Amino acid sequence: MAGKDRDAPDPAPVLTPTSFALLGLLNLQPWTTYELAQQMDRTLSRMWPRARSKVYEEPKKLVRHGLARATTETVGRRPRTVYRITPKGRRALARWLAQSADGPVFESEQVLKVFFADGGGRLDTLRTLHDLRAWVHERTMVNVEVGRAYLDGSAPFPSRIALNTVVGRLLDDLLECLDTWADWASGVVETWPDAPGEAPADQASLEATLRQAEARAERWLGSGSSPPAQP
User: Fold this and answer.
1) pLDDT tens figures, 155-199
2) Quick one: which of 8, 12, 21, 43 has its CA closest to 145?
3) How far apart (Å, rounded) are the C-alpha atoms in residues 177 and 172?
4) 227 or 22, which is more confident?
5) Spans of all domains in the chain
6) How confident is residue 139, by pLDDT bands cut at 50, 70 and 90?
7) DSSP characters over 155-206
8) Mean pLDDT of the chain
9) Which of 63, 89, 96, 102 sits 20 to 30 Å CA-CA off 132?
10) C-alpha span between 72 and 52 (Å, rounded)
11) Which residues, 6 or more positions from 66, have their beta carbon under 8 angstroms from its beta carbon?
């Protein structure tokens, strides 16, 4: 029987985006499970939030698939497991990056409450919008801290500043969008009666939203072409 072709592509195991997120972190440097969870909280939670329990499960899965290896080290008297990406893991990460990806999924309990505001009162909705703006402010301060760290050279992984700037711009634009919307929505809700279900239709806002969507569609379609083509 002929030996396995070493240059043949490895069969890709069935992994989740969370698996590849951790592979991406391991591609930067070795980490313990605790450190991986910290990195998920510090950075990836802004674009891929996951429960810590999932983060603790994934490294073992990567090891089972041969995409990472685990070694035991001792710090003082305490042992710890450190995970490192393997060549097979790097190939799997590269294949994933080359594939098409699903679109974003927006999730917000606060926006969900505004959508069903007719089941409560006007003040409830205003409090929800206030809480959303407070959350935006909290996340904004994190962005400011991270941005300043990169400018003064104290941030980790300075070689990734180009990548982090591209993604950071999107994350900050989303915060700006949410803050602008919550501010506008608060002004609208202030004019509502105590029972939101009795609020009159806002024809002007509906027409403005439609015009905005139509203008965006026109930018894509142009003279009847498809949305932006892949490079």
Assistant:
1) 888 999 999 999 999 999 999 999 999 999 999 999 999 999 999
2) 43
3) 9
4) 22
5) 17-97, 109-198
6) very high
7) SS-GGGHHHHHHHHHHHHHHHHHHHHHHHHHHHHHHTS-SSGGGPPP-HHHH
8) 89
9) 102
10) 21
11) 86, 88, 89
Write down the pTM of the prediction: 0.81
Model confidence at 223, pLDDT cuts 50, 70, 90, reads low
Contacts of residue 126, Cβ cutoff 8 Å, sequence gap at least 6? 186, 189, 190
17-97: CATH topology: Arc Repressor Mutant, subunit A (1.10.10)
Q: Report helix, strand or coil for 47.
A: coil
Measured from the Cβ of residue 32, the count of other Cβ atoms closer than 10 Å reads: 16
User: Which residue shows structure tokens 């001792």?
Assistant: 74
- Counting beta carbons within 10 angstroms of the beta carbon of residue 24, is it exposed (0 to 12), middle (13 to 18) or buried (19 or more)? middle
Quick one: how far is CA 210 from the chain centroid? 27
The count of residues in the chain is 231
pLDDT digits (tens, 9 = 90+) for 18-65: 999 999 999 999 999 999 999 998 888 889 988 888 888 899 999 999
Q: Where are the alpha helices (DSSP H) in 8-101?
A: 17-26, 33-42, 52-64, 87-98
| Distances, alpha carbon 231 to alpha carbons 41, 100, 140, 176, 228, in Å | 32, 12, 33, 29, 9
pLDDT at 220: 82
Q: Which two three-digit tokens encode residue 164?
A: 């982090």
